[in-house]
Amino acid sequence: MTFEEIKALDQARIMNTYGRSNLCAVKGSGSRCTDINGKEYIDFTTGIGVNALGFCDPDWVKAVSEQAATLQHISNLYYTTPDVQLADTLCSRTGYAKAFFGNSGAEANEGAIKVARKYSFDKYGAGRDRIVTLVNSFHGRTVTTLAATGQDVFHNFFFPFTEGFVYAEANSLEALQKACDEKVCAVMIEFVQGEGGVVPLDAAYVKAVADFCAEHDLLLIADEVQTGVGRTGTLLASEQFGVHPDITTLAKGLGGGLPIGAVLVDKRLEKVMGASSHGSTFGGNPVVCAGANVVLSKLDETLLADVRRKGDKIRAALSKCSNVESVTGLGMMIGIALKDKTAADVREVCMQAGLLVLTAKTKIRLLPPLTISDEELEAGIKILCSVIDQ
Ligand SMILES: *Cc1c(COP(=O)(O)O)cnc(C)c1O
Fold first, then answer.
1. Which residues does residue 28 pair with via DSSP β-bridges, in sequence order?
2. Do 315 and 328 touch, CB atoms closer than 8 A?
3. 160 preceded by cis ω (within 30°)?
4. CA–centroid distance, residue 249 to ligand 1 (Å)
5. Nearest atom, ligand 1, residue 142 CA
6. Could you read off the pLDDT of 129-181 as tens digits, one per residue?
7. Active site residue 138
8. How far is CA 248 from CA 100, 211, 241, 311, 314, in A?
9. Catalytic-residue membership of 122
10. Which of these is catalytic: 223, 241, 246, 363?
């Protein structure tokens, strides 16, 4: 099929929920991918923070294909090796006690919401079930996680939404305290609001929120679906904010390109979800977990330090572009506000010039492979800066 034929078939047969760019990807290796016409691109998107090791990392491919050829799936009514190994690695490296695996960020957040509500129900009885989330947050596309998302544009069409979410302005402890009445059981935050425009929370605010939650037995839930798994230069972004949330959710980068979501809970929550209280047919799939085990094995202190160094390098280069208004984010999760160009235009021109970038609200957003080489990083930055400043 030609590109035009594929595009026509997509428009005819796939629900038109995405504003797709005119590119049909056919293969990738490391930080580069190739389209159907043979054109190469440097990738600063990783499929929105998913391909943490870039395209088709050889060790990841080997683990995933060997697992697919050995045992691709069996119901969660039986034991398997890859998921227990993944849970053990995640818990021992983060200080959490137990993990639950699902298939996406939204599903992980749904799991966290269920844990928080059940913890409160078991301890305080019915009615203490509300969850405070932040204005400008993003927590997913299911009916419940849309309700959790603190942006009015997402609260449309699909009524009735799940009840029990209250929104507080970010970085205001006073606003949070006001929102937390006796019906609230948990507070959910992103350390860096990703879809909201790569906006980090103030460290002092985060600390104060954690203290306030501890004082009132409110569970602190960190949605690290985008910030987790090394993206910000530490395994979890929470490490850089000096807090340890009661629950952390992960997804995007964890599987290295295959669908997975994880809910990590502290020791005191480990028994909240008993038999039959939660489940997921595909959750903890052996092939996906085999891939995730490779991602975590590569994400050692050396690579994490390299993520911080490369993030700083991108920021330093961008600060020299005259048309850049500001650069936000942490590690290799970067938002760029522009002075007199739109992010959508820059993304389009970059693509023509052989570089893939993302947008978030009015900003350019960069989520390059954590393993990108300095040479590819420099080549991509060169294209980006010339497009921004031309
Ligand atoms: C992407 C994202 C989600 C939703 O993840 P899905 O896998 O698309 O369900 C939730 N929270 C945050 C912070 C995200 O960035």
1. 33
2. no
3. yes
4. 10
5. 9
6. 999 999 999 999 999 999 999 999 999 999 999 999 999 999 999 999 999 99
7. yes
8. 11, 17, 14, 23, 28
9. no
10. 223
